[in-house]
Amino acid sequence: MKPNRIRAPRRTANGMSYSRVRSRRSALLEAVPVPMPLSSDAVDLIPVAAALAELNEGELCVLIDVTSKNPKVVPGLFAWIGHACDWELNRRACVDFPLQTPEAAIPPEQDAASIAAMMTLRARFAQDANGNAGAVIALFDAMIRALTGGERRH
Fold first, then answer.
1. Maximum CA extent, the chain
2. Helices in the chain by DSSP H: which ranges?
3. Is residue 19 part of a domain?
4. Are 118 and 125 in contact (CB under 8 A)?
5. φ, ψ for residue 6 (rounded to 5)?
6. What's the pLDDT tens digit per position in 92-104?
7. I need a labelling partner for 10 at 20 to 30 A (CA). Which of 40, 50, 93, 115 fits?
8. Model confidence at 32, in pLDDT bands (50, 70, 90)?
9. What is the rounded CA–CA span in Å between residue 112 and residue 140?
């Protein structure tokens, strides 16, 4: 395997600079384990973390941009989506901080509105993407499960 070249950061998201990644593979060598810190109650976040890992940098940056431009609709939900995408970009850069649960950003009175908004967002991406947004839709599915508590709340 050829060693990766380090390039100067060219893109920004939430005030942080990130280098451009041209493929789904990490810029790190495969032999180097990348920590995936999760918050203490992270059972529902494992699928979210796995889905985030499947997105490329551009997709993550677009999600951060979309969520930061529409904070009035469901601010807690959009803050959590932006945090999760930012967490993944930082994880790839070996910056260690925990992925927070939706409860950390979404007040209980916004639970129902956040779940409805997440389902609408998922349907919108599925409709508008013409089959090209499979990884984003998988992320939204994992986030919906985290928001609803998966099987535990049903």
1. 52
2. 46-54, 57-69, 75-92, 111-128, 134-148
3. no
4. no
5. -90, 130
6. 999 988 999 999 9
7. 50
8. very low
9. 16
More confident residue, 25 or 31: 25
> How much is the mean pLDDT over the chain?
75
Total number of domains constituting the chain: 1
Residue 15 lies in a domain: no
Q: Are 32 and 4 in contact (CB under 8 A)?
A: no
Judge whether residue 2 has pLDDT over 70.
no
29 is a domain residue: no
Least confident of 25-29, 79-83, 107-111, 128-132: 25-29
The pLDDT value recorded for residue 61 is 92
Which stretch of DSSP H or E encloses residue 17? Answer: strand 16-18
Three-state secondary structure call for residue 2 = coil
CB neighbours (10 Å) of residue 71? 13
In a domain? residue 112 = yes
**Domain, as residue range, for 144:** 42-148
